[in-house]
């Protein structure tokens, strides 16, 4: 029946992902993705960007408020933190491709905070629904090292049991892509630096983890 919603466990972006497409065609197709309900409230799809053959692929959680408005990943305050951290770790930002595990902004509006759109973490089902886009990006970019930025990205790539506090800062195998060897490293999301009481300490931890990724590229 028209208008009937699919059961949540049936959500998937798979029908919207064109087979054999390049990054530009994927980006265009992703603009029309209706694979899960998050597209209903978001301004637009925010696809990955950067070096199409980057040696490093950085995966965040989802677009934030500024990313949703501008249509590009990591263009808000967390993006500035990430650029600075990459530079200090010895990773050339121009040699990286950046994307998110989920391509639409999930939020709630809080009237008592001036109707600000406040970030809400995507569910496991929403991450799973969006996984075909991430897999397509990984296949086309072909990075040497993948960096999971934060808990949501870590769960999207390593499974629901992932804990950033336990598994950060170590090169890990990428489940389902064992042929790549130990190519995946997890760390905190740059936004954690902005929320921290001791920003410098959290920032230094982020840089330390990224230096391990930089070493793996040498």
Helix content: 25-40%
Mean pLDDT: 92
- Main CATH class: Alpha Beta
Computed Rg: 17 Å
Characterization of this structure:
The chain has 218 residues and is α/β, with parallel strands linked by helices. The protein has one domain (21-216): Uracil-DNA Glycosylase, subunit E, CATH 3.40.470.10. 37% of the residues lie in helices and 15% in strands. It has 8 helices and 8 strands, in the order αββααβββαβααββαα. It has helices at 23-30, 65-70, 77-89, 124-141, 151-158, 164-167, 190-195, 199-216, and strands at residues 49-50, 56-60, 96-100, 107-110, 116-119, 145-149, 172-173, 182-187. A 6-stranded mixed sheet has the order 1-3-2-6-8-7, sandwiched between helices. Strands 4-5 form a two-stranded antiparallel sheet. The longest helix has 18 residues, at 124-141. The N and C termini lie far apart (56 Å). Residues 1-6 have low confidence and may be disordered.
Identify the notable features of this structure and list them briefly:
single chain, Uracil-DNA Glycosylase, subunit E, 8 helices, globular
Helix and strand topology:
Elements (H helix, E strand, L loop, with lengths): L22 H8 L18 E2 L5 E5 L4 H6 L6 H13 L6 E5 L6 E4 L5 E4 L4 H18 L3 E5 L1 H8 L5 H4 L4 E2 L8 E6 L2 H6 L3 H18 L2
Parallel strand pairs: 2-3, 2-6, 6-8
Antiparallel strand pairs: 1-3, 4-5, 7-8
Helix pairs in contact: 3-8
In short:
With 218 residues, the protein is of the alpha/beta class.
